[in-house]
Structures are given as structure tokens and as C-alpha cells.
Specification:
- There is one protein chain.
- It contains nine helices and five strands.
- The chain is of the alpha/beta class.
Length: 237
């Protein structure tokens, strides 16, 4: 509030504003300052690898990227409905960019978000077995409003990883939303789990009312692009 006091005083003097108008202006400034601070905290805690946005994604590069569906998801109604999102496709089509961009939008709309690589998540949880902190570490992934798991299914899960994932999905089912990115089609996911019973349980829950976004096309990396619009590109000639 003190940061804008001088400016608001000058405005009040110039416009002959009353005391209540002056006070309301200060309160609005303080509210905006606190909201901005909360957003920065959410973005920092989310653990994004880079600051990616929907506005910064070049949808024109690949016709196989369903821009309309992705922009609809940016409205975050899936979070309110506790629905999951699958971003599927080959390497380089922008799955991670879109996942982080959706997370960025969610932060701006007041949701707490956590971004993690699947391998990093399982490694972190497993580290808790040395000091009996597994339950505490699991809560990091079960309690967050929007969990983004990047590069899921790069290789089959071990029995321990499958059990940990079972716990996460069980706690989040119909309560929280999860975004997955993967190079594998959903039909291949059953084979990632060592126990078919656990596999069926998990797949039934994560696929329930989920949004499946299939992204196809060339790799941005092969074209010297990252999905961010910038200057002249090979495609633009």
C-alpha cells in the first residue's frame, strides 16, 4: 500500500476525490499487490522447467495439434470438474510446452499446481523409504489441485513404483485433476504395470471422464523451433 500512496495522494488532490474514494484506491492497490504476490508464489512452487504459455505456442507449425481443444482446456473447467487430461504424441510436438502452459493458466486462476517428470516423482517417493517419510512424500502429489506428470511411461513401472502410483491415483480420483504427457498411446499403458489387477484399477480411474489430446506432426526441435513464435523460421521461409 505504501508503494502507491504518493501516487494516489497526487491523484486525489488533482481530482478533488473524497476520503472514501482515496481509501478505496489504496485498498484496491493492496489487493492487487497481494494477488500478484500469491501468483508468483504459486508459479515458483509449481516447479515448471520453463515459463510456457498458451499464447506463446505456435499452433500453426503442426496441423495435427488440436488447437481448439487445447484452448478450451485453458479455461480450466476440467479442474473444477476434477477431470484428467492426456497429452499424447511423439517426441518434440510440444506436449510438455502445452502441459506447462495449462499449468501456468491454472496458477493465474488461483489453483495450486505441481509439475514433475514421472521418473523424478518416483525417485523422490522412493527416497522416503530410507527415513520412513514415504507417506509425507506421497502427500506432495496427492494434495495438490493440479498435478502434471511429464513423460509418463518411458519405461515399465517396477512393482514398487506401481504401488506408489496406485496410492496417488486412489487419493486423487474424483477429487483432483492430473495432466499426463506421454509418447505412448493409451492402449499401451496397460502393459506398463506388472500386476494386471492394479493396472485395471489405475487405468479405469485415470481414464474416467478424461480429455485425450493427441498431438501429431513434426518435431519443433528438428526445425530449430521450440513452439515459441519468434522471428523468421524455416516454415515461414
Amino acid at each position: 500500500m505504501i508503494d502507491t500512496l504518493a501516487v494516489r495522494l497526487k491523484q486525489a488532490e488533482d481530482s478533488n476525490s473524497g476520503y472514501m474514494d482515496f481509501l478505496m484506491s489504496l485498498l484496491e492497490d493492496e489487493y492487487e499487490r497481494r494477488q500478484s504476490g500469491r501468483l508468483l508464489t504459486r508459479l515458483r512452487n509449481a516447479g515448471f522447467e520453463e515459463e510456457k504459455t498458451i499464447e506463446g505456442f505456435d499452433f500453426s507449425f503442426n496441423a495435427g495439434v488440436p488447437s481448439k481443444k487445447i484452448r478450451q482446456l485453458a479455461g480450466c473447467s476440467y479442474i473444477e470438474s476434477r477431470e484428467n487430461v492426456f497429452l499424447l504424441g511423439p517426441v518434440g510436438v510440444g506436449k510438455t510446452h502445452v502441459a506447462q502452459a495449462l499449468g501456468h493458466v491454472a496458477c493465474r486462476m488461483g489453483h495450486d499446481v505441481l509439475f514433475t517428470k514421472a521418473v523424478k516423482m518416483f525417485t523422490y517417493i522412493n527416497g522416503g523409504r530410507a527415513d520412513n517419510s514415504v507417506e509425507t512424500r506421497l502427500k506432495r502429489y496427492t494434495s495438490i489441485a493440479l498435478l502434471i506428470i511429464d513423460d509418463f511411461g518411458l519405461k515399465p513401472l517396477t512393482p514398487t513404483q506401481a504401488d506408489d502410483f496406485y496410492e496417488i491415483i486412489s487419493e486423487r480420483y474424483m477429487k483432483k485433476s492430473t495432466i499426463f504427457t506421454s509418447n505412448r498411446e493409451i492402449a499401451e499403458w496397460q502393459g506398463l504395470f506388472p500386476d494386471p489387477i492394479i493396472s485395471n484399477y489405475i487405468m479405469d480411474r485415470i481414464a474416467h471422464n478424461a480429455h485425450q489430446i493427441v498431438m501429431t506432426g513434426e518435431s519443433y526441435r528438428n526445425k530449430g523451433k521450440t513452439g515459441v513464435k519468434s522471428g523468421k523460421t524455416e516454415k515461414e521461409g
